[in-house]
Structures are given as C-alpha cells and as structure tokens.
Amino acid sequence: MNGFEIHDTEMGERIMETLEAIRTRRSVRRYTSEQVAPEQLEVVLRAAMQAPSASNSQPWAFIVATDHKLLNEIPKFHPYSQMLFSAPLAVLICADDSYVKKPGRWMLDCSAATQNMLLAAHEIGLGAVWLMIYPDSERIRRIKDLFGIPEIVTPVNLIAIGHPDEHPLPEDRYKPERIHYERW
Ligand SMILES: Cc1cc2nc3c(=O)[nH]c(=O)nc-3n(C[C@H](O)[C@H](O)[C@H](O)COP(=O)(O)O)c2cc1C
C-alpha cells in the first residue's frame, strides 16, 4: 500500500485517489474527435473555482472556447500551441482585477486554479495541457484582442482539453537532493 492505488467506492464506481491523479497526470496534446460533455466541463470548472487564493479573493474568470475560427489563430503567435487545432475545447483562465484584493497575487491564484483543472480533467479521463499566456506581453495582447477581453482582465493560462489520443506514462520526478531540512 503506497497511497497510489485506485480504490472501488461502495457504489462500485472506480475513483482515482488524489495522489494517484497527481502521480499519473501528464500533459496530453493529442485528442480524439469526441466532444467534451457539458457535465465534464463543469467538473473541471468547479475544480478550478475550488482552488485556494490569497485572501480568498477568487480573482479568476474563464472563457470556454470551442470556436476553431478563434482557436486556430492562437498558434500564429503562440509557438507551442499546435494542439489547439485538434482540441475540442480550450479554457482560458483570466484574472479579473475587480476581484483582486492585494496586488501581485493573482497569477499565483490563477495558477492554483489551473493545476486543479488539470488534475480534475485527468481524474475524469480527459487529457489536458497548460499553455502559458502571462507574462508574455505579446501573447497577452493577442489573446485579449482575439477574445474581446476588457482592459482590467488579464489572460493568464490557456488549457487545451479533450479525450486523450495519447497516454504518456507517469514520470517519477522525486529528487531528495532538492529538499533542505531546517536551513538551506
Ligand atoms: C507555466 C507552464 C507553461 C507551459 N506552457 C506550455 C506550452 O506553451 N505548450 C505546451 O505544449 N506545454 C506547456 N506546458 C506543459 C509543460 O511542457 C509540461 O507540464 C512539462 O513538460 C512536464 O510534462 P507533464 O505535464 O507531462 O508532466 C507548460 C507548463 C507550465 C507549468
């Protein structure tokens, strides 16, 4: 028993433990043509909004994008986003300055939400990958133009999501030498 097993619930439904999801999540950049169901999308968005945030400010706002007229524009200015051509949807995680309580925290809050989304997507059998928008000023500007985002809102990350058409294996990245005890 190492805490990484998948257990059966009393209802006989298979669920993934948190640690198992963390251990096995990988970026998925190839997707089948199957659409993401609205209920699946809700699971992912609920996970996002469940994230911790500084002063519980929850500064996030989301754009769910399925229109490939827009999505296919992104690889023209974001060099590592080719998977968007085949992703059935992408979710843009934004920071809305009207909810920000203390400056300088929103990118951390939005990144916590982003990681929750990746884990939730993986847990329910979807594949996803994190595409960085902030702090690249050109990406921010182009994404804002493309999606009509108001001045006080900053796009932070974009997540491509779909049914996986590749299954990258887990990687053990534990490096005990990176850990310092008590003092550096
Ligand atoms: C801040 C950040 C930016 C990233 N940007 C991209 C990106 O633009 N394109 C991409 O394909 N993957 C991107 N990734 C995914 C990383 O490449 C990936 O997480 C890393 O290689 C580890 O692989 P894994 O996610 O499969 O564990 C990004 C991840 C993070 C955290």
Tell me about the largest β-sheet: 4 strands, antiparallel
How many β-strands, per DSSP?
6
For the record, give the distance between the C-alpha atoms at the N and C termini, rounded to a whole number. Answer: 32 Å
Mean pLDDT: 93
SSE order and pairing:
Blueprint: E1 7-8, E2 14-15, H1 18-24, H2 38-49, E3 60-65, H3 68-71, E4 89-96, H4 106-123, E5 127-132, H5 137-147, E6 153-162
Antiparallel strand pairs: 1-2, 3-4, 4-6, 5-6
Helix pairs in contact: 1-4, 2-4
Name the descriptors.
184 residues, globular, binds flavin mononucleotide, 5 helices, disordered N terminus, four-stranded antiparallel beta sheet, alpha+beta, two-stranded antiparallel ribbon
Write structural notes for this entry.
There is one protein chain. This protein is of the alpha+beta class. The chain has five helices and six strands, in the order ββααβαβαβαβ. It has helices spanning 18-24, 38-49, 68-71, 106-123, 137-147, and strands at residues 7-8, 14-15, 60-65, 89-96, 127-132, 153-162. It is globular. Mean pLDDT is 93; it is low at 1-6. It binds flavin mononucleotide.
